[in-house]
Predict the structure.
Amino acid sequence: MAQADNTKANKLAYLHVRIVQRVLRKLLQYIVTQNNEQWTLADYIHANGEQILRTQFGPRHFQILFPRNSEVTIDALPLYLIEHLITDVPGCFVVHRDINHAIHALNQSRRESNTAVVTGVGDVFFDDQFEEVQQLLTTVCRLINNNSLQSEVQMDIESLRRTSFGNDEIVLDEFNEHYEKEKSSRKAITSITNEQRTFHQRLAQVAVLHKGNEPAQSTEQRTEPLCSVDMYPVQVTDAVLELVVQTNNTTGNARISRDFVNMVNNQEDSSEPSALRERRHEIRAHVANTFSYYGDFYAKQGCVQICVKPRSVKLLFELFEDCVSGEITKKLKPVEKLIRGITNFEAYKQEVVLYQDHYDSVMNDIASQIRQQFKDRGFTFENESTIPRNLECRIWRKVCFVKG
């Protein structure tokens, strides 16, 4: 049984660090040539250097992106850095929204696989991951019109799925090392500036949830008008907060995270420790009391991610504020106390954080939608080609403070 689980873990690792990485390298190269057919990756990075260094990942990876006495190549980039270059710095080429969604979904799949490698890879999880990754990579290949790559990827995935696969510790070690590097490169938001707060307030006044994006609610519950001439309907992606967990036991840490997700989602799992299972309803109630104010919520693996579907744009920003201020961590203290009462979890600690990449993803997505509507209504931007996606606050200023 352990052998089978280890084989599945190796196959998941190979799927991400070999097949997914190969496709995303092709995608990044496609974006580079869409900007200029003669460009190399080094040309693209130097042309967008100012934008890159304004992102949260640019300065942290300066030596990789701007090496001395040599030119950066795609092969030298870790997978997570390729993802950032695709979604955060598209230069003059506007990345299709479906590609952005595919990149984020692939990243989520990788995080969930990292957790499963520690806690054990079940048959259902294994099959679901392969199916999801194959669909996402097919979407990417179609959007860049690369039929040969699409066929190649489908055959490779099916072959990997069916054939025996030895215990390739090298690929599994590479997968785990990549996870640790990615985790260490992420930055939690510790404060919201007055300028950001002003943008949030003004954006909440002009943006309204697109019909169909709102959670089910009665007329009395509705917190925003559907639309008016001065309003901009937007679809808001789920806001993602992460529960950072600390224990003295690495394996216990991963298992408690898995069990916490099951409890939040109200899913049964016979493998839960009995002491934790006895507290599931109480823990679920505390989580519901904390997050139901903002909207519907659920949890995902890959550490512990609490995903909230906000009932309004205003509540989205309240969620961000309450997380960064520590208010949500404080509200979940009873959960921490309950878990610390379990044997071997006496040192358990938790903190709810908002990572910069999650924040940027939501804000850039909202801003890009408003940006397009703003242009559709006949407004124009000065120096349009110089406006980077990761600095959409320039767009917000125009949308929020310029009318007619």
Summary: The chain has a mean pLDDT of 81. Strands lie at 207-209, 232-234, 239-246, 295-301, 304-310, 349-353. Residues 188-404 form one domain. Residues 2-35 form the longest helix (34 residues).
